Amino acid sequence: MQSFVADFETTTTEENCYVWAYAICEVDNRDNVIIGTNIDEFMMWCEKQKDNVKVFFHNLKFDGQFILTWLFHHGYKHTTKDNEKASRTFNTLISDKGLYYSIEVIFYLNGKKVNKVVFQDSLKLIPLSVDGIAKSFKLPIQKGSIDYDSHNDLPPDTPLTEGEIGYIKNDVQIVAYAIDYFYSQGLNRM
User: CB of 70 within 8 A of CB of 39?
Assistant: First the structure.
């Protein structure tokens, strides 16, 4: 299963909280980074994957809330049993303490043909902050900084600044590097 790392940047106001930026980085090819400005584009990318893929978020509990909200608002049904899986369904692995492990979304299922994306929490595999990962691995890229409130008063789909693009790109590339390293060591389980 091909693996990616993704990240969302969101507004910080409770009354108008939405994804204003996303980035997706291929674990095996960290130069392959896709950046966009809304969750609809992100979910369309997920749905269009020809093969089943795994997408890591470093703190799925936060980013997963936006994914779950999107799924419910777009008619997807939550399932708890394998025999309930069908097109436009999803299941979750969330502990009774609210720890998010995974969200599996079935976009299409017909016989043996399945198109699914599994979102997993890379924080369970690598219990360090993104900044801590970059420093521990002595990477040539480091975690940057942005004004997290900068999009609160801007309309959705506002173009990203070069600084914002660099920030979110570094975040996904840093985590992708660490996941690739752990995979190369045979450490590929949550």
Answer: yes
Pairwise CA distance, residues 24 & 4, whole Å? 6
Q: Strand, helix or coil at 165?
A: helix
The CA-to-CA distance between both ends of the chain, in Å, stands at 15
Query: Which tokens go with 113?
Result: 């043909």
Nearest to 20 by CA among 30, 2, 32, 8: 8
Cα 83 to chain center, whole Å? 26
pLDDT, position 190: 67
Report the candidate in 173, 174, 167, 165 with the shortest Cα–Cα distance to residue 131. 174
Three-state secondary structure of 114-154: EEEEEEEEHHHHCCCCHHHHHHHCCCCCCCCCCCCCCCCCC
Report pTM.
0.95
Which parts of the chain register pLDDT below 50? none
